[in-house]
Known about the structure:
The protein is about 30% helix and about 25% strand. The protein has about 475 residues and is of the alpha/beta class. The protein has three domains: about 1-80 and about 240-350, Isopropylmalate Dehydrogenase (3-Layer(aba) Sandwich), CATH 3.40.718.10; about 110-230, 3-Layer(aba) Sandwich (Isopropylmalate Dehydrogenase), CATH 3.40.718.10; about 370-470, Alpha-Beta Plaits. The chain has a ten-stranded mixed beta sheet with strand order 2-1-3-12-11-4-5-10-8-9, sandwiched between helices. A six-stranded antiparallel beta sheet has the order 17-16-18-15-19-20, covered by helices on one side. The longest helix has 17 residues, at about 145-160. It is elongated. It binds nicotinamide-adenine-dinucleotide. The site of nicotinamide-adenine-dinucleotide has 20 residues, from loops.
Amino acid sequence: MTRITVAKGDGIGPEIMDATLAIITAAGANIEIDEIEVGEKVYLAGNTSGIAAESWETIRRNKIFLKAPITTPQGGGYKSLNVTTRKFLGLYSNVRPCMSLHPFVSTKHPLMDIVIVRENEEDLYAGIEHQQTDEVVQCLKLISRPGCEKIVRYAFEYAKQQNRKKVTCFTKDNIMKQTDGLFHRVFDEIAKEYPEIENEHWIIDIGAAKMADTPEIFDVIVMPNLYGDVLSDVAAQITGSVGLAGSANIGEECSMFEAIHGSAPRRAGQNVANPSGLLQGAIMMLNHIGQTSVAEKVQNAWLKTLEDGIHTYDIFKEGISKQKVGTKAFAEAVIGNLGNKPSILKSVSYANNSALTLPKYNRKPAAKKELVGVDVFVHWNGTDPNVLAETIKKMECTGATLSMITNRGIKVWPDGFNETFCTDHWRCRFKPNEGDEMNKTTIIQLLENGLNQNIDTIKTENLYAFDGKAAYSLGQGQ
Length: 478
Ligand code: NAD
């Protein structure tokens, strides 16, 4: 018996959750349920995270959370419950299988069978954003070695368990050499430990284009958070319907399972919604808690029901479908098919599908870290970088000489182009002269000189070398 936490959510949530629970219970799922309230009502009651403190206790105690979609109220101030849950509970891995059900669900990609493994905690989703000048805002993209190692290893272990042949990595490391570069490097390192699984890397832009055009050439695809967020929706949509996909959010302790679609408020309360997405989430949950034979039975019954042409409105097609049904009737049809297998679609066998156990991350020995320069960011309303350079040079001190100014990353001094458009946000790079050294005191001196010159410094970024290797990007055009 596994005790799980269930939230019925908003909109179509309660209907599809009731249908899902009816199916898995009929199939023999050995679960006990604690229900909690999340979403719109909780938000509107004044809780900006959409969940009450005592509900966290239930989720953390049970560790397994089956969640229906929720409605995030319009207007500012409401935090995304999904993002908060993933990060609070360390659900680092988002697994989303996207499989075509041709010819029963129409799709341009009849052979598609992809699993997207998305990093779920880092990247631009750290949500660290600032306005720094009148014209410029920034968002910090944070990528960590533990984050990369955990998600890449998860992708390979998943591929191994599921007997999949290839893991592909998507990044944009031709541009983001530090952040995406680390993700790609870790991918190459870990891939070596799995010689039996093919591995490859694609630059995300052409990779995404290829995935949308010829998805059948991909198998498991692993990627950083933002790319995974966007592309997992694309992948689900091109199988024929986002209404059919579920996702698992896996952490070292806790896990959350859900449909990928939202609460579809316009369809709520009409007994028309397709429960398949949440059911797919529930099947992943059953596998995760080791009830693999129940999961297998439900999945085969679901495939058989789709094959029988018993379809909800969202996938109903004259000529393919046989019967248009509502939420409840669809669930009853799946229950009626428990024990049956599809004959045209491939039936599944989940004997080895229990939760993966991955080794804990081992922190690497610290590298030799050396301060080799500093970028001082300045708010300045002028337009001529040569004029700015004259002022900024007055900040210089022993150990810190102005070496470059960039605007939005492109070098504008020395030897800039008149054509380069400049905002009011300037990065001034200081380096020690040959034979000098920079330390933290140098930076304090530099900033004090700036203060005396009425220069509006808005932030500094230290430039480091790790084990003698420069670990920062050059200016574009440098
Ligand atoms: P949505 O996914 O709710 O709906 C998009 C379209 O798909 C609608 O036309 C809807 O009718 C249809 N649809 C979705 N699921 C369906 C199903 N199971 N059966 C039949 N048709 C289905 O997206 P939206 O309209 O952009 O968002 C509605 C609300 O859901 C918003 O408040 C949004 O914030 C929230 N949302 C929640 C989650 C979540 O809780 N995980 C995810 C996405 C959106």
